[in-house]
Amino acid sequence: MPPKRKPVNLSGDGTAPPIDTWWWLTHKGTTTSFLCISLFALLIRSAVSMFPYSGAGTPPKFGDFEAQRHWMEITTNLPPIDWYRNGTHNDLAYWGLDYPPLTAYQSYIHGILLRTFDPDSVSLLTSRGHESYHGKLLMRWTVFSSDALIFFPAALFFVLVYHRNRAKSEVAWHIAMILLNPCLILIDHGHFQYNCISLGLTVGAIAAVLCGSEVLTCVFFTLALSHKQMSAYFAPAFFSHLLGKCLRRKNPVLSVLKLGIAVIVTFVVVWWPYLHSVDDLLMVLSRLAPFERGIYEDYVANFWCTTSILIKWKKLFTTPSLKSMSLAATVLASLPSMVQQILSPSNEGFLYGLLNSSMAFYLFSFQVHEKSILMPFLAATLLALKIPDHFNHLTYYALFSMFPLLCRDKLLLPYLTLHFLFTLIYHSPGTHITLPKTKTSSFSFTSFPGYVFLLRTHFFISVLLHVVYLTIQPPSKYPFLFEALIMILCFSYFVMFAIYTNYTQWNFSSHFRSADKEKKQI
Amino acid sequence: MDHRNNGDGRLLLWLFAVATSVKLLLIPSYRSTDFEVHRNWLAITHSLPLSQWYLDETSQWTLDYPPFFAYFERFLSFFAPLVDPKITDLHSGLGYAADSVVYFQRITAMASDLCLLLGVLRLTRKAEPLSRNLICVLVVLSPGLLIVDHVHFQYNGFLLGWLLLSVSFLQDGRDLVGGFLFAVVLCFKHLFAVAAPVYFVYLLRHYCWSGLATGLRRLLTLGAVVVAVFAAAFGPFIYNGQIQQVISRMFPFGRGLCHAYWAPNFWVFYIILDKGLAFSLRKLGVDVQVPSASFTGGLVGDSSPFAVLPQITPLTTFVMVLLALTPCLIKAWRKPQPGLVARWIAYAYTCGFLFGWHVHEKASLHFTIPLAIVAVQSLEDAKHYFLVSIVSCYSLFPLLYEPREYPIKVLLLLLHSMVMWLGFSAQYALKEKKEDGESKKSKFEIGCIEKSYLMGLVIVEIVSQFLHPYFLGDRFAFMPLMLISTYCAVGIMYSWVWQLKRILT
Predict the structure, then answer these.
(1) Signal peptide span per the entry (chain B) (predicted)?
(2) Domain ranges (residues) in chain A
């Protein structure tokens, strides 16, 4: 009945009507279908990893691949206290470590692995720009194994908790949406990063929320934060939801205290090497917040970058004032969803809260990167069954917003193929996507005729831009004209999307409240 | 609603599209020398007149497929220069490996798989939806085809598509078209000729055996059709007086009994027995001469590679294949049933694989693909197919020897096994529901022996991939491959015995 997917299919037999097309995949239970789909997802990942990575063969600075390799070189050869400190062996100007300690530990473990099999690839100083066949392969395999060992189990945990009482074929579809998410595959296994770890930990934390174990949530989310500071995009949602829940307990202070302790203990454990003096801690923290890089970089589809076409933020304001402006804007934008969760925390609302807060950060915070769209996109993926149409469009524009980046990495073919594969699986036959059962309200803005027109125009222009970007040289006066156009287009979609999801989240709670009232009246 | 959706081929097309996206992602993967072989054929057929095709020796990869395949390359070579003129340049194109040629050739392999899709669509159009989809998954997403065609590089999907089309016409009772298509396949790749005796007996008996007048007329028609196909293929070369040359290119018997990597067939046991005998006789003090040619060295010449056992000639293998085929031919003669044709053809290719001369491990596709059609017919067939398709896919592993493709081949095999297991158990769980009564027997379960054999594959893989290089390094470098082919040969032999038993009962 609902959506479904997967490389194989057997389908319902005509004589047994209640059996749907994907019954064969799901008849052994969620875990088995998860395994089958994850094998396919892993296959796709290992195929994508044969394509070039960011900065392949481009000295002197290379790209993210070299950054990660360099961190392995630093962490395996120097003591932890020197990892974040400029020194004779650690030139911070050359891809200095700028992620929190958990990333450093992960680099250390992976570095040990590389050193065992290919010592040259992580030797101190001499290994810069190392790109041997085995070195590259081992690096790719570290991402692959991180994905399989962290993101996949976390996704399974989430699916098992979230889909306790749902039709099986819907679950299979949702699993495929999570595991075959083209953005994450392209960035981690194409471009080269380890988002699967921090996103996996975040998904684990979300699943822990859904199954009600709040201490576990705090531990997982703190770990995610200690792996990539960008996980903070989700912090408002976790904070407000947990706070909202604690406030409804008998002893709010005690529950908050319990969670606070869990967070602090986890932080202390992870950050231990840097907690011996204030200077050490400040040194690490200053590495994590590179304010000197400006409010935005390249062409990212957020508020600051898009409006900079009209208002030259960087010229009009100093960095400190931009800092406070962006902070204020981010807080304002995520406030509605936080308030909603504090007032009426619910699992469904929490997922929307994650989406809204991460989108607010993406649109308004300081120093956002194209890749940061992964955060809101992950939250949307978890909600795919609730907002299938919007999820489909968001995938399209999220991918599109990274299009120039992926073209630079020579990942055009996987970009198109994964997009195609996503569309196929999204529309797998024998299934049709059911509209959200909770009809939010009769005057949802998606039903305005203007909206559909707008969406189609958007889509048309974006297809055109794909072609133009690939075939036409931009005018020499505006070398980044097409990037700017792509950015404007994606930004305008993201804004519409954010308005819709914020609206839905609020509507959601009023819907529940009125339902509660009705119950009480009865 | 679901029923309707599955009744038309929409799900099939969808599946094919999914398979195509996997194939697209495999474009940058490892390519064997077969890639250059096919590129060279593009260049030969494009730049030389037909009379030179089978004479050209510019590259060592001379044209050695029958003429239809050469025509097919000629057809592709119309498009190649549009992409990059260097692809079809006979001299400067040698060893050309730019993106343009890789994308062009890879995409031709994907596009020619449409033929496979067509074959499956036609063959399964009357099957019940569940079986139909299962067959399609097994064929379209066959890990063997993906490995051989889209990583290693060949056009097997295209050729097997023709074969499946031919089978589908035979199953419909349209014997003449079926025979015609088979003749076409033969003129694409002569290795398909192993099934010719089955076709011959079946068509003679089922199509021509009906009264003297009709029979004779049909026999003549059929003969005329086959002759016409062969004339279309070989005619131009006969006209040029080159038929000798073409034949000698197509049948290079000088190449020896076994390929450099032994296909997992009967001859593996023969060689091992010979080695064992020679070894023990030497221990006993008998003077056994060391053969001048060695199997483990890779290159096999004309001299006898056997120390004790008699030399094997192409004729011996030919007779053995025919002998192995005989029971099936008798069966086909006695009772020619269209429903059993696929089974017989698969059996014929199994015999050819086991006893043939200079067999490539890739030839196992010739029987795993037709067996997929048979697999959905009964529980026993499903169990047998489960085993044989895993073994034959595993035996292809040494083709992709580079570490980069390692996860890909392993995941392909695991995914295939998992899908088979889920698919077959769903199929029989459904049947169980339908006929509640005697449901006990119809559950898809792998027997104890089969299970331990398959577990053994894991051990063989661990030993040959990890333990051997770790402990022995480069010494006995032939050991891992020998271990794999011997172990897989056991499985294929079992499959052969099983199929034979199945055909006879």
Answers:
(1) none
(2) 195-288, 290-386+446-509
Inter-chain residue contact A424 with B14, CB threshold 8 Å:
yes
Is the CB of residue B12 less than 8 Å away from at least one CB of chain A?
Answer: no
Distance CA B369, CA B361 (A): 14
Put simply, whether B404 touches A (Cβ < 8 Å) is yes
Q: Is the pTM of this model over 0.90?
A: yes
The 3-state DSSP class for residue A368 equals: strand
Could B5 and A429 be called an inter-chain contact, meaning their C-beta atoms sit closer than 8 Å? Answer: yes
CB of A176 less than 8 A from some CB of B: no
CB contact under 8 A, B422 and A27: yes
CB contact under 8 A, B419 and A14: no
Cross-chain residue pair A11–B403, CB shorter than 8 Å: no
Contact A421 B21 (CB under 8 A): yes
ipTM: 0.92
pLDDT tens-digit series, residues A121-171: 998 888 888 899 999 999 999 999 999 999 999 999 999 999 887 777 788
- Give B106-110's long-range contacts (Cβ < 8 A, gap of 24+): B106/B23, B106/B26, B106/B27, B106/B150, B106/B153, B108/B76, B108/B79, B109/B23, B109/B149, B109/B150, B109/B153, B109/B154, B109/B155, B109/B157, B109/B158, B110/B20, B110/B23, B110/B24, B110/B150
Torsion of CA A158, A163, A164, A170, to 10 degrees: -150
Express each pLDDT in B282-322 by its tens digit.
888 877 777 655 555 444 444 567 778 888 888 889 999 99
Residues of A in contact with B24 (CB under 8 A): 413, 417
Q: How far is CA B448 from CA B440, B452, B454, B483, B485, in A?
A: 17, 6, 10, 22, 22
Distance from the Cα of B263 to chain A's closest Cα (Å) equals 26
Closest to A9 in 3D by CA, of B273, B9, B368? B9
